[in-house]
């Protein structure tokens, strides 16, 4: 695992963009993408570049259940706004969380998509509780795409994007830890003091399902990009 400290999110986005270009030059075809504030500068770098993504496939980590694609808070909407509208892929997959009753079938469809398109480079953020995607503490490491009851801490952390906490969905569909670990390479962004504990556990803690990101210690190609605040508790 490589840890790169950056001044700010713009520098982090630039470093990740250079890594992306290396992976594409080496033949990467399938990108695993994430939402949240942490990857935004990375997407800005892509949008500002002359990179053509129209031959590639993207597969997103997760989506809320019970809000449809056009809802401004949906991850579909986020991806269109920050990347896909400017840089369309050949195909972009996101979990279909719009119809709650369809959840189990949507999970099955997503696992099939993932088995057909192995991810070359997975982009991740991290939750303050150490979640990756929406794999909350306690999620078995063997899990593939699944329906999730969001942690109260995640609902509260994500309330900043909604008018009030009662509007935050309480369920999501997320790729599982197994799907994430199957990606050939991983870049994880972490910014700000609220991520200190999660990053400490990820890099130096025991590998435990109580801190889902700690499993990344067992992945052969992970780059952590973080600012001084997020990395402050590491023994370096
Ligand atoms: C959400 C997403 C995660 C993301 C996390 C951190 O819970 N499901 O994929 O990593 O938020 O978000 P941020 O980057 O805004 O801190």
Low-pLDDT segments, ≥5 res: none
Overall mean pLDDT: 96
- Do you know the CATH topology? Rossmann fold
The largest sheet has its strands arranged as: 1-10-9-6-2-3-5
Number of discrete helical segments = 8
In terms of DSSP E residues, the strand content is 15-25%
**Dominant shape:** globular
Structural description of this entry:
- The chain has 236 residues and is an alpha/beta fold.
- It has one domain: Rossmann fold (3-Layer(aba) Sandwich).
- 32% of the residues lie in helices and 18% in strands.
- The chain contains 8 helices and 10 strands.
- A 7-stranded parallel sheet has the order 1-10-9-6-2-3-5, with helices on both faces.
- Helix 1 crosses helix 2.
- The longest helix has 17 residues.
- The chain is globular, with a radius of gyration of 16 Å.
Give structural attributes.
236 residues; alpha/beta; Rossmann fold; three-stranded antiparallel sheet; globular; binds 2-amino-2-deoxy-6-O-phosphono-alpha-D-glucopyranose
Would you kindly provide a brief summary of this structure?
The protein has 236 residues and is an alpha/beta fold. Helix content is 32%, strand content 18%.
Topology:
Blueprint: E1 2-6, H1 9-25, E2 30-33, H2 40-48, E3 57-60, E4 62-64, H3 75-84, E5 91-93, H4 103-116, E6 121-124, E7 146-149, H5 152-158, E8 171-174, H6 177-182, E9 185-190, H7 196-204, E10 222-227, H8 228-231
Helix pairs in contact: 1-2
The protein binds 2-amino-2-deoxy-6-O-phosphono-alpha-D-glucopyranose.
EC number: 3.5.99.6
Function: Catalyzes the reversible isomerization-deamination of glucosamine 6-phosphate (GlcN6P) to form fructose 6-phosphate (Fru6P) and ammonium ion.
Domain Glucosamine/galactosamine-6-phosphate isomerase: 25-220
């Amino acid at each position: 695992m490589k840890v790169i400290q950056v001044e700010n999110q713009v520098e982090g986005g630039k470093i990740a963009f250079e890594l992306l270009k290396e992976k594409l030059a080496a033949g990467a075809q399938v990108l695993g993408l994430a939402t949240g504030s942490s990857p935004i500068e990375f997407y800005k770098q892509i949008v500002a570049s002359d990179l053509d993504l129209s031959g590639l496939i993207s597969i997103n980590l997760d989506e809320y259940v019970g809000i449809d694609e056009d809802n401004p808070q949906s991850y579909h909407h986020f991806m269109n706004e920050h990347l896909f509208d400017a840089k369309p892929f050949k195909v972009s997959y996101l979990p279909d969380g719009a119809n709650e009753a369809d959840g189990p079938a949507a999970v099955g469809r997503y696992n099939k998509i993932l088995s057909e398109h192995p991810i070359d480079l997975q982009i991740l953020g991290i939750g303050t509780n150490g979640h990756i995607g929406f794999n909350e503490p306690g999620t078995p490491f063997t899990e593939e795409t699944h329906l999730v009851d969001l942690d109260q801490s995640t609902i509260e952390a994500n309330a900043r994007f909604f008018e009030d906490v009662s509007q935050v969905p309480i369920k999501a569909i997320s790729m599982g830890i197994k799907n994430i670990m199957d990606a050939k390479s991983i870049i994880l962004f972490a910014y700000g003091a609220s991520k200190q504990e999660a990053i400490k556990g990820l890099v130096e803690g025991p590998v435990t399902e109580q801190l889902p990101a700690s499993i990344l210690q067992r992945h052969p190609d992970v780059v952590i990009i973080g600012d001084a605040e997020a990395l402050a508790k590491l023994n370096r």
